[in-house]
Amino acid sequence: MFKKLLIKVVFLTTFLFSSQLFAVTAADIENANPKGQTVEFWVQYSDERLDAMKARAERFEAETGITVNITYKGHYGKVQSAMMTSAGTPDQADVARGYGNAAADMYQIGAAMDQSILANSSKWGVTQDDIDDWGANWTVGFSGYFDGNPKLLHEVGKSIEVVYYNKDWLNELGLSEPKTPAEFAEAACAATNSTFSGRVGDTPSLGYEIDTDASNFAAWVFAHGGDVFDYDSGQYILNGPAAVAAMEFIQGMSNKGCAQVTRDKYADQQYLGLGSNLFALSSTSGITYFQSAIEDGYNGNWEISAVPHTTSEPVMNLYGGGLIMGNTNNADKMVAAYQWMKYITNTENSAVWSTESGYGFVRTSSADHPLIVAKRNDLPQYDRSLGLIKYGKGEPSVPAYYSVRGEIEKAYAAIINGDDIMSTLNSLNDEANAILADAIEN
Amino acid sequence: MSRIFSKYSEQINGYIFILPAFLIISLFGIFPVFFGMYMSLHKWKVFKGRFLGFENYQKILGDISSFWIFILGLLIMIASYWVWSEYKDKMKNSFYCFVVSSFILLISLYLINISWTNMMEKGDADFLNSLIYIFYYSFFAITTEVGLGLLIAFALYQKLKGKQFFQMILLFPYITPAVMGGAVFFIIFGKAENSILNEFIGLFGYDPQLWLFDKRKITEIMFGIKIEGFFAGPSLALLTSILYGVWSYTGYYAIILLAGLSIIPSDLYEAAKAEGATRWQTFIKITIPLLMPIIFFLLLTGFINSFQAFNHIMVMKTSSAGETMDVVTIEIFDHFWDRVKFGYAAAEGVVLFIILNVLAISQYVIFRKRLNYD
Fold it and tell me: Exposure winner among A374, B41, B161, B216, fewest CB in 10 A?
């Protein structure tokens, strides 16, 4: 008798504690009190950007009584790893910076939450006017990959992969801004076989130093009219015709000695600044770093442009990094975190952040902000970058894309160094699809 | 009760004294091993998932029975050496002993070959290759470190001015944090034509090398022959990380061997000198045999430790080196941390654990007769 009773008690207790009865509900959100809460915010920003974000957090605390602790966790991958490995513990951050694929990975294991419950709150959520102002930057945060179309990402900034180039050197070579891959290769080889008059130091000339990350790979595939993922079949297409064409173009330049794998992290930026590299492909979020490198180096004219393309219009790799909410299961903290997310993406802050960081703003209304107008006038490259965002196309927001990126990087470097394109891409595609299958398997 | 206590008080006291050590070792040493084994039997992505049984092992090894055949092959290989070392002096004609042990060795090589081929066909090739890469790393690093360490120790054992200064300098690489040392090596072994090492070898008329960015096998670079498989050797990139290991540990081994040299009775050297032995003969016939227990210890612990090399390789690895620098610890880290496949990574750890145990056994059998001064 006693044994049966004990079993019932144990069963009921287990059921209660493991059920959704203790999950945060819409009513909990409405009744929450965010004041006095501390929001942990994990970021990939460092240096000036981190300082700028911390200054914003201080202003937010003064206005709302909510404290925000901002912690630099390393690059995006490290932020993701930290969030995932601390899932289910009190150590997890309330908000973290990341991309859609990271959000998908986190959501899959319960490390990230669906933000809809907060967005829909009449007291703490967003208005229809806000949503309209965000436009596509709002809708892109929903992940149709999962049942219920959860909102996993709150967009905070936009950047795009562009070509940075030494305008003075291109003029010396008598060439104009390359519009197609063939023109790009021609200019890269011409630069490799010449020496820029303003070069600082004695580093040999090079047309194009390639940062072999997956975003660079995707940028060239997009520019050749293709994609790296097919959402219809839910499979990677890293060995598709556009990927093959892109790699033939890259390997062709490498074979002629006009392009090579980067010597070190940010070496492309450094040598472009010194006037020994003509081209670099990088995100517009690094625009201020390129500006500094050039000012400290050859200190001449430079420009950004669309990635040379075989398509009629440019197709460019768009980064829509955003804010991911950790699943803390605490309504007060969740609301506090969401207020912070809304704050840093309001019209004012979106504009200020854009001028501070080089990221594109996410609110249409930010375009007319005096700071944006001033920066557009001061830095024509920034102005041009904002105009290129409309050509953007994103990389896959599917689980385990971070792991696939590592495989792409190795295969990309191998191809540049002379490995067979078709067999390398076939192996890469098989590996990528195997990683995806493994990630979504229960 | 008090009678029992007084009767066994000595034993009870003993157990009480070892209790803290027992608890600490159990908690931090033994429990994680068994917990890792438990994890390896589950789908575990941060949180424990469904029970998989040996599915993770199946994916890693392709065929679990092949793995055990591989382990059996290794043990038979050890046995072949045991037969040879144990019976070669006991049998009238040592040729028969040689034939028998050679036959056993051939069987072991056959088993290792077929089982490994089978695993490579069906299992996780990345993981299995990572075992080969770490074998290269350990083998080349440890033999060079101990060999060079021995020579340095012998040199320092002579009457030298400023001996203690050199001893101190020798320890500098060992106490340098691996991450910092790895970063410095990354710069020295840069692929740019004007990297420090390329500038240096250029002084002797050599072409610049890609070093950490070169995934070509050493046999291809040195002899121009392109071969696949185990005998192709490490890539130039991995060899560069081995050089870091050599730089980092040689001084440490030299200091330990120097301490060993100092306990060799000096009258042995004097007797050898009186008999007219050369310095080389003294080194081979007296120094090395008497240092063998220490050399054995260093080889054993060094080999097992270097199987777990991680920090500097993580810092020095490049995308151009492809997978050739993905040694087993990097592979496990990648699955655990980047892919969040805790169960799978744990299974890889268990496989490594079993192999390390076999290595420990093999080294014991090989060196057991050289463990003392008899």
Answer: B161
Do A164 and A274 belong together in one domain? yes
Same domain, A185 and A93: no
How far apart are the C-alpha atoms of A433 and A439, rounded to whole Å? 10
Domain C-terminal end among A354, A373, A389: A389
Residues of A in contact with B323 (CB under 8 A): 410
Size of interface A-B (CB pairs under 8 A): 65
Q: Domain containing A195 — which CATH number?
A: 3.40.190.10
Domains and CATH numbers, chain B: 124-339 (1.10.3720.10)
- CA-CA distances (angstroms) from residue A66 to A59, A113, B197? 10, 21, 54
Bridge-partner residues for A280, per DSSP?
A164
- Going from the C-alpha of B170 to that of each of A196, A280, B162, B163, the distances in angstroms are 46, 43, 13, 11
Q: Helix-strand-coil percent breakdown of chain A, rounded to 5?
A: 50, 15, 35
Shortest distance between the Cα of B322 and any Cα of chain A, in A, equals 5
Are A361 and A354 in contact, with CB atoms under 8 Å apart?
yes
How far does CA A356 lie from the centroid of its chain? 17
Residues A93 and A186 in one domain: no
- A16 — pLDDT class (breaks 50, 70, 90): very low
Q: Which residues of B touch A (CB under 8 A)?
A: 43, 45-47, 49-50, 186, 190-194, 213, 215, 318-320, 322-323, 334, 337-341
CA distance A169 to A189: 13
Pairing outcome for strands B42-45 and A259-261: unpaired
Which candidate from A77, A87, A264 shows the least CB-CB separation from B190? A264
pLDDT for the residue numbered A47: 85
pTM above 0.95, yes or no: no
Give me the half-sphere count of Cα atoms (radius 13 Å) on the Cβ side of residue B156: 26
Domain that holds residue A286: 160-316+394-440
If asked whether residues A68 and A87 sit together in one domain, one would say yes
φ and ψ of A362, to 5 deg = -105, -5
The model's pLDDT over B251-293, given as tens digits with 9 standing for 90+, comes to: 999 999 999 998 899 899 899 989 999 988 888 889 888 998 8
A331 and A375 together in one domain: yes
Residue A3's pLDDT band (cuts 50, 70, 90): low
Q: How far apart are the C-alpha atoms of B87 and B110, rounded to whole Å?
A: 23
* A427/A328 same-domain check: no
| Residue appearing with tokens 């049942």 | A147
Is the pLDDT confidence value at A366 over 70? yes
